[in-house]
Amino acid sequence: MPSCPIQGFTIVELLVVLALISILATIGMAQYRRGVTHAQEAVLKTDLFDLRDALDQYYADKAQYPASLDALVTEGYIRKVPVDPFTNAADWQTIFSDPDPNNPTATPGIADVKSASDRTAIDGSKYADW
How far apart are CA 101 and CA 71, in angstroms? Predict the structure, then answer.
């Protein structure tokens, strides 16, 4: 009987290959998740910068802060209130201004915004502190 020229892999060889593939896949997933988090942090920083810039422009034009973030949209300072990338909602934590001693009848408005997320950033700080 002639010998077969095709030989298969042993179970040990297959297990070694599967182990290597799973290790590489695990490393790849960790890098992917870290990359997604970096991208979300970049979006959060940009959104905070844009909202704070719009608040400053509103104050410079009207000498008072807006009563809500929707006022920035209706007045044309921004197109829409951005979505927080970590909460997936436009639920920004708003910080109201102190009453103006020069204009006591003016109502305090939104002077600053922060993320409503309670998660921790890659650098160890809280997103709500940015």
Answer: 23
